[in-house]
Amino acid sequence: MIDGGSARYPLLPRSARPYGRSFRCAPAAALKSGADVSVTVRLDAKVKTAISSIPEDAWTTMEYTDAVYDEQTSRFSRSMSHPRPGRCLHGVTIYQPVGTATDTGGDMEHTTRIPPAEITGVKGALIKRMIEKKLGKVPTAVGVYWHNPKVLFASFGLGGKLQKWDACDENLKSFAHMAVASLVGCTWCLDFNYFETRNKGLDVEKAREIPRWREADVFTALERDVLEYAEAMSQTPPTVTDELVDRLHAELGPSAVVELTSVIAFANMSTRGNVALGIESDGFAAACGLRPLAERPGVASAS
Q1: Three-state SS at 265
Q2: Is 127 among the domain residues?
Q3: Among 143, 199, 230, 253, which is least packed, fewest CB within 10 Å?
Q4: Are residues 205 and 222 in the same domain?
Q5: What is the SS3 assignment for 103?
Q6: How far apart are CA 298 and CA 224, in angstroms?
Q7: Looking at residue 284, what DSSP letter applies?
Q8: CB neighbour list of residue 227: distance below 8 Å, 6 or more residues apart
Q9: Domain count of the chain?
Q10: Based on the domain organization, do 168 and 275 belong to the same domain?
Q11: What is the largest CA-CA distance in the chain?
């Protein structure tokens, strides 16, 4: 934001076209009259260099009144409680950077092995804003991974690319990720993906049964093969068989099987990292009133 030096003048955008108007103002004329001006530019290398040279304490936070970016229409619109129809943003965990304990409400308390870092700076403010718009609150995991922003952003980037893949059915990919989380013991991924099935309009009732999928009678033969594949890939060493892959290949085709395999591999990376760092459920599903997940059957001791 370019400060015109007087709070009694309005904030004028260099271009208001993202908000559905054709109004444009000349920065020089606006500044001369004492108004504040916002300028939208492409974030290229020169702009990034210029931004990095600005001291942290020189920034002024600003918001366009009631402006919300709608991902479905790629337009800015008036503020609304649910950016997407049916999406729940209510009452989820409040991010706490102080200490290691995070209170998720009720008696669900947990401790991360690496204390969450305070998310600061311009990039920190942007990432918190982005996550809060999507989820309502910032998850504990973000604070933990903020100790190494390069790792955090790389994970975000890969996860974002995975969401754009469309060769394999979304329900199957979601079920596979949850199956990995249940097997590995990642309560964060299991809860969050259960929460996301509701937001994405997927089959919530089937998702609820993932922890006990072998005993449940709600899954099709294909879904059971996908869940078996997810667990087989997640064993050490993997226990995938030719027969299982042949069945998936025949039902889904090669492109979808490759995509499903990559999603399961990503799920193993994220779930195992979360478990190792002590990152547990933030209670997203419960905050939105979803029924508790089915219990995973006990595994008999090998002794």
Answers
A1: helix
A2: yes
A3: 253
A4: yes
A5: strand
A6: 19
A7: H
A8: 175, 176, 179, 210, 213, 219
A9: 3
A10: yes
A11: 82
